[in-house]
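Give me structure tokens for this 602-residue protein.
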Amino acid sequence: MPVLIKTSNNKIVLQIFKGSPAFRNIVSLAKKYHCIYNPETHEWEISPNKFESLHEELSDIDRIVTPEGEDIEIEKILYKPSSIKKFNVVVDVKDLKCPPIKGKHPYENYQLEDLSKCYSTNRFALFLEQGTGKSWILITLCDLLKKYRGIKKVVFLTSSSGVYNIKKEFSRFSDITNITTGGVLNRRPFDDDVDVIIMNYRSFLLVSDDYQKDKNPCIKNYRKTPIPIEEWLNKDPGILILDESHNISNPKARQTKAVQLISPYFEYIYDSTGTPADMEQKYYSQLKILDPFLVKNLSYYEWLEEYFVLGDRYSQYRVIKIKSSKALELQKTVDSICSRRFADDVLELPEQYTRNYYVELTDIQRRIYQKVVLTKLEEIQNSFGYLSSHELRNTFPYLMSSIDNPKLLLKHLDKFDSSMADMVNSFEFKDHSKIEALQDILISHANSKIVIWTSHPSVGYELASLLGGYHPLVINGEVPLPRGYSLDQLKGKIVDQFQTDPQYKILIAGIEVMNSSVSLVSATIQIIFDSTFNYTEYDQALKRVRRIGQDKPVFTYKIIADNSLDVFRNKNLEQKDFINKKFLSKEYIDQQTAKQIFNMTA
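Here you go.
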């Protein structure tokens, strides 16, 4: 029996009949060329990049049949042109509801220039550093496209903490009013006849899964979007805005795949983030969603093979480094579709003063920390003197718990001997080594508004209890929600209170929740009490205070426990992955290297 090659859902597929004598050989060939099997249709999806080579080998094994007219459709997929269009238009300031801010020389008109770049094409990326006014550009762009090109529908995806703020700014920067938000309280926003739907990326995945229940509730890793996008768009071109687009930089994440499935329905697509990629491979999804042509219509693994040196003893797809011959090519591709700006280049921002405030661990903290370290060193010794860097990295949360809030170790006592429980239970947060330093800073800036950044919610609550006399506001991922409030709405309310009400001097903010889409310019002091290893979240959080609207010098204090992993955590954030590049670049770590990382003597 012949092999059938045709198109399905704008993809080239291979259909193999079990009665064919060459069935096993054809299946082996499909696997060789990384074809993707669909158990529902029993078809193999062929990558356009592999089609010609596979077709040539396949013709030597069996007869190939292509239905009439399918040759033309296959050619359209194989030689799919770019979807990027250019328009010869000029933005007139008179058409804007809210005027742009003025940058410093020679970038006085940078916002208007970037708005014009977006308005002059249907696919573009704004890789602008936090605090440079991306929201104004994106929302003003939607307003212009609606007024002068008749684009009615917008899907606006943003960070987990940005929905409330984006909805407010639509009223400031545009005349668009028919807006809804999607999420836990509205899982089917595409059923409504609205102009703008705003969601965070996690909520968008939740919404996609809810629509999937109508088709097959047992399948979550679907291959076609279950959302009725075509019906919602009503055959009109739509706008897809991916704010904080680093959230879809992992092509294997389900939320990334859900976004990719809706992107072909939109004529206008815009990316926006201040931290597009700390590793070159993270550009793939952002480029592909803008236009598959930018990644040469390649799958992720095909793209990796073309641009990177791959493979080690554990995985043939592990990225070792970008090929020197391809680095400039990728850079030019990214540069061709984006505007990249840094706050200090384009804005007259006030001075920023940063101080590392080192403290010593208390006796009980040191004993707890040493217990965690020695337990890990014993594990290394029992592993013939070496431990994989991956295992060591997984130890960091336990080590940081012993510094940030030892009580967190109560959940992991099974990893230690019985003496650990006694030590942890004897610890009182009021005696934390960082508390005295924190109080010194608060007294030194008694008349200022202050943001205290934390990573662990439990640390935030402990600080709120100790600083009760200041009446601090607290927001993190575990804060109890008032009836009828989402986390994003509560965050918006707390930010408004902190920004406008003089009685609130201190905001204790969780880095994960408050790292994007908010302005905290009423504060001039920020203190990092306990941090994170996530550079993107950390970097974005610190830009909440020093940004557009800030007219006073900003003081940043980093309280660091000396002679501990806290020092390395700070270096990791300052030097963007210091630990991995300097200490965990090898597959296995010996005891001496581990001691250096932990800042421990023998």
